[in-house]
Amino acid sequence: MPLRRQISVLSTRLPQRRAIFTTRDIQHLNATVNALVHVSKTPQTTRHDGALHGMTLAIKDNICTASLPTTCSSAMLAGYTSPFDATVVELLRDEGAQIIGKANCDEFGMGSLNVNSIHGPVVNPFQPTDAHDVPLMAHEPRSAGGSSGGSAASVAARLCTAALGTDTGGSVRLPASYCGVVGLKPSYGLISRWGVVSFADSLDCVGVLARSVDTVKEVFDVISVYDARDPTAASPELRKRASSTAESCLPKLFSSVRANTLDGLRIGVPQEYFPLELEPSITSSLRTIIRNLKDAGATIRPVSLPATQYALSAYYVIASAEASSNLARFDGIQYGLRVPPPAGASRSKPSNVYAHSRSSGFGREVRKRILLGTYALTADAFDNYFLQAQRVRAYIKADFNRVFRHPCVHLAHPESCLSADGVDVLLHPSAIRTAPRLAEKRECDTSSIDEYLQDVMTVPASLAGLPALSVPAGLGEDGWPVGMTVVGQWGTDQLVLQVGRVIEGIQ
Predict the structure, then answer these.
(1) Which candidate in 112, 143, 171, 320 is catalytic?
(2) Is the pTM for the entire model greater than 0.85?
(3) Which CATH number fits domain 3-237+430-461: 3.40.640.10, 3.40.50.150, 3.90.1300.10, 3.40.1080.10?
C-alpha cells in the first residue's frame, strides 16, 4: 500500500486528539519523509484533565527537551541532551500533551528549504491528487520548506496533531505553505523563548503548526503566557493593553468574525508583495480568496509598504550579525563538539585551538552566515551595514503602523499613529512559489541566491515583530499547496487567528 494511503487509513481510524501511532508506526512512516530525527520510545505520563490531553506534538530540534536530544541538526551538538525542558515544552506537558519526537530542521534554524541538516533533507509528504496510487518514495522529492520543515512535514504526514517550530524570518510560515498546513508566527515576545537555542534574539519566535486553525489556537492559548525567565517576554501589562486596545477599537468586528462573517473587517493587500518571481498561479489563488472574503462582508483595500523592497537585505544583515554573536559560545571548549588541533599546529592563540572545532562542527551555511555577520559588526562595516539595517527595520515598522487602523502599544504615544482609514489585517501570499524540487537546490548550491529569495514575503512581519498566520489556499498549477498569510498589528494574534479561521472555512 502506498505510504500516503497508509497514513490516511491509520489517521482516520482514531480520534484526531489521540496518539494514533505506536513508536514503530512513526518510525516506519517517517522513514521516507525524514521529518523526525528522534522519536520518543515510550509515551510520557500526562495529565488526564489537561486542556491538551491526548494531543500529540513534535518539537523542533532547537527547542530543549530533557527526555530527547537537542542537536539543532548540527554536528556541533550531536548527542547533546538538555538537562531541562524549555518553557513551552513544560507548558505542553502540564496540559497533557504527548511529545512524540524532535523534528528535523535547518542547522541552527538557518535555511529556507530544510536541506542544511546533518540528518539529511526533509521530503515534503504532500501527494498531488493525480498521484495517490504512486508510493511517496517514487515521487520526485520536493522541499518541505525551512527551517521548520520537519515540524511542518510531521503534521502534514499526520505523524502528530500539531508541532512547534521557530520562526526567525519565515521558518514556520514558509514550510506551512509548502506542506499545505496552518502555521502561526506570533507577536514577538508573546511566547517564551527560554530553552530555545538562539539564532537571532531580536527575531526568533516559537511558532505553532497544525492541520487546522482551531488546533493552532488551542496550542497557542496554552503556551502564550508570560515567563519571567525570558528577558524578551512581553510584560503582562503590555499584553493586557494590546488586547484591550484591539477590542476597544474593534468590538463589533470581533463578534462578527466569531460568527464566521467579516462584516466591518478591512483587509489590506500590500502592492509591494507581488515581485517578478511570484508564480502566476499564486496570484490567481489570492484573487479567489479575495472574492470569497468580499462575499463574506470584508472590505478589500490596496495599501503600500514602500520599505518592503529593503526588508530582505536588512534581515540578512541583522540575523547574520546576531547569529555570529550567539554562536560564538560553541567553540569546543565551553560548549559543543571538541576537535583537537592536529599535531604540530600552533596553540599560541585561542583561535588556533577552537577554529578546528568550529570548522568541523558547523555546516557550510552556518559558517557563511557567521562570517557575514562578523564582518557586519566590524568597525569598518558597522555603520554602513548593521546600523543601516536597523534604520530600515524602523522604517518597516513605521510602514505597518501607518496602514493599520489600531495603534501599536509599544509606542510611547500609540494614539499618534491611529489611522481612521487604516486596515485591520493584511493579506498576501506566503511564498513566491510552490514547494521547489530538492534537485533544484542541489543544482544551484554553489552560487545562486534563490534560496534566500524564498523569504521575501515573510521577513517584513518578522522585522516588525507582528503576528502572521499562513493558511492553505488551494493548489498551484503544478498541483502543490499554496498558502496565504494574514498579518495583524502587534498583540492582535487572536484577531489574526479568527480571520484565518474564516478564510479556512470559505474555501
Answers:
(1) 171
(2) yes
(3) 3.90.1300.10
Taking the C-alpha atoms of residue 212 and residue 180, their distance in angstroms, rounded to an integer, is: 10
pLDDT attached to residue 3: 41
* pLDDT 10s digits, 305-361: 999 999 999 999 999 999 999 999 999 998 999 998 888 888 888 888 899 999 999
3-state secondary structure 376-403: HCCCCCHHHHHHHHHHHHHHHHHHHHHH
Annotated active-site residue in 73, 112, 143, 147? 147
* Known active-site residue 60: yes
Is residue 202 among the annotated active site residues? no
Q: What would the grid cell of residue 209 be? A: 503548526
- Tell me which of 505 and 181 has the higher pLDDT: 181
List the one residue out of 187, 183, 327 whose CA is nearest residue 243: 187
The pLDDT value recorded for residue 411 is 81
- Reduce the DSSP state of residue 60 to 3 states and report it: strand
- The alpha carbon of residue 192 and the mean position of all alpha carbons in its chain are separated, in whole angstroms, by 15
Given a cut of 80, is residue 9 above it in pLDDT? no
User: What pLDDT was estimated at residue 347?
Assistant: 82
Q: Which residue has the higher pLDDT, 247 or 105?
A: 105
> Residue 314: CB partners within 8 Å, gap ≥ 6?
388, 389, 390, 392, 393, 396, 463
Distant-in-sequence, close-in-space partners of 138: CB < 8 Å, separation ≥ 6: none
Q: What is the pLDDT of residues 433-472, one digit of tens each?
A: 999 999 865 544 544 556 778 899 999 999 999 999 999 9
Phi and psi, residue 127, nearest 5°: -125, 115
R_g (Cα) of the chain, nearest Å: 22
Cα–chain-centroid distance for residue 274?
21
Hey, where are the domains in the chain? Answer: 3-237+430-461
Structure confidence at residue 262 (pLDDT): 83
Q: Return the closest-CA partner of residue 88 out of 53, 54, 62.
A: 62
Select which of 40, 60, 143, 151 is catalytic.
Answer: 60
Q: How many CA atoms lie within 13 A of 84 on its CB side?
A: 8
Residue type, 256: S
**Whether the bond into 248 is cis, omega within 30 of 0:** no
Question: What's the CA gap between 462 and 499, in Å, rounded?
Answer: 19
Q: Count of H helices and E strands in the chain?
A: 17, 11
For the stretch 351-374, pLDDT in tens is 888 999 999 999 999 999 999 999
pLDDT above 70 for 210: yes
Is 240 an annotated catalytic residue?
no
Residue with cell 528577558: 231
CA distances from 115 to 34, 155, 190, 458, 491 (A): 11, 18, 29, 19, 33
| Cβ neighbours around 257 below 10 Å, total | 25
